[in-house]
Fold:
Amino acid sequence: MSMSSDLNNTDSTGKASNVIRRTLKQKLEALVPAWNGRVKDIPAPGEVLAGPCAVIAFAEEVPKSAWAGYRRIIKISPYARPEDGGAEQVEVWSAALMEGLHQVRLEDEEGGAFTCIYLGSSDCDRVDASSGLVTRSLRFGVYVPETVEYAQAETTDSWMAALQGWTRTQLGQEWSVYGDAWPGGYRSKSILWRLTGCSTTTAGTSALEIRKQWIGHVLAANVGDVRQTVTHLVEQLAVQPRIALTDTDGTRYVTVDEVSADLQADAYLNGQIRLTLQQRIRRPGTDVPLIREIHHSKGIE
Structure:
């Protein structure tokens, strides 16, 4: 059973948490070798922490959104001995944790993926009364896609299918392209397109103009890859303003009305690209005029 499937029922939530916990411990051990693998759960009553280490504590778990899945709050607390630098050493380790975990995709041993987002420090530096170690608690949100089945279902929206196909053509097989929601096993180089709005306006007496607003998420481990890919997609949408729609009536097109990017936006949660596509169609009932022409005669002979 995958980690994301575990979240579908209450009985399996503990199993999913254990998978996340094991994956995080392995990551923390790699980020801070000075802990020598001492990444612990909350100490039992009377237990005294010894030496430099870290403690992981799990907090609330809530549904976040249809595309981001569930959010689990965790607290990671590095502990340093006063003789090893105390608060200064905690500061160094905290910086390493923020850099090594923020917006980072982690994959568990079962193939499930989740993303960590740094949410800030939950308290000030303090001295642990029992051990005398200096510590600080850092809050992270662990985002777990809700279901694999929902996110990977074939889209019935021809605009979405066309946008995904266009993106694959632009980026090649190195990138995975998803629609509507992050899947449980999303890849390290991924694009997610989400439909966020739709509107129609009249264009004359016989046409309708349909507009759809999209958000594009570009996720990769390398910041340079993200920046380059976001810029490339926005530039190509600007210079190639038509995307082909293939349907039973032949090839039709949607056009790019507006596109922009915010390179500072959170890739997993908020997305960097804002895109508006439009298409003009004939209004129903206007294909054939009711009266083609009128002949007028001055009198009756």
Observations:
- The first helix runs from residue 3 to 6.
